[in-house]
Amino acid sequence: MSAHKYELMFIADPELDERGLKKLTEQYLETVTKEGGDVENIDIWGRRKLAYEIDGKTEGNYVVVNYFADPTTSDELDRLLNLNESVIRTKILRK
């Protein structure tokens, strides 16, 4: 299977500080690198106001990551992110 380029955007709990957010991000990107994928760029936007309330929260920490991986690795990353209570929303787009 060949690797594709993806963009991951996730919104984490606004209570997370910058260090916690960075640790959370690196923890999940390890899934990509362990499976032979490559992380191209990590852009931590930080705390922003949400367009609408999600689970009683009006703000969230935004993170955007560009990476190359197999589709199965991307599916696994999405699955793991959805299991984490600190992650409010997640979206993975194939570029």
* Structural classification: alpha+beta
pLDDT < 50 stretches: none
> At the third CATH level, what is the topology name?
Alpha-Beta Plaits
Q: Which architecture would the CATH scheme give at its second level?
A: 2-Layer Sandwich
Compute the number of structural domains.
1
| Average pLDDT, all residues | 94
- CATH classification class: Alpha Beta
Strand content: over 45%
Which range best describes the helical content: under 10%, 10-25%, 25-40%, 40-55%, 55-70% or over 70%?
A: 25-40%
Contiguous helical run count: 2
CATH superfamily: Ribosomal protein S6/Translation elongation factor EF1B
Spell the H/E element sequence: EHEEHE
Q: Sheet bearing the most strands, described? A: 4 strands, antiparallel
Strand order of the largest sheet: 2-3-1-4
- Which overall shape is indicated by the principal axes computed on the Cα atoms? elongated
Alpha carbon gap, first and last residue? 17 Å
Task: Round the Cα radius of gyration to an integer and report it.
Answer: 13 Å
Count of beta strands: 4
Function: Binds together with bS18 to 16S ribosomal RNA.
Protein name: Small ribosomal subunit protein bS6
InterPro entries: Ribosomal_bS6 (IPR000529), Ribosomal_bS6_sf (IPR035980), Ribosomal_S6_plastid/chlpt (IPR020814), Transl_elong_EF1B/ribsomal_bS6 (IPR014717)
Keywords: Ribonucleoprotein, Ribosomal protein, RNA-binding, rRNA-binding
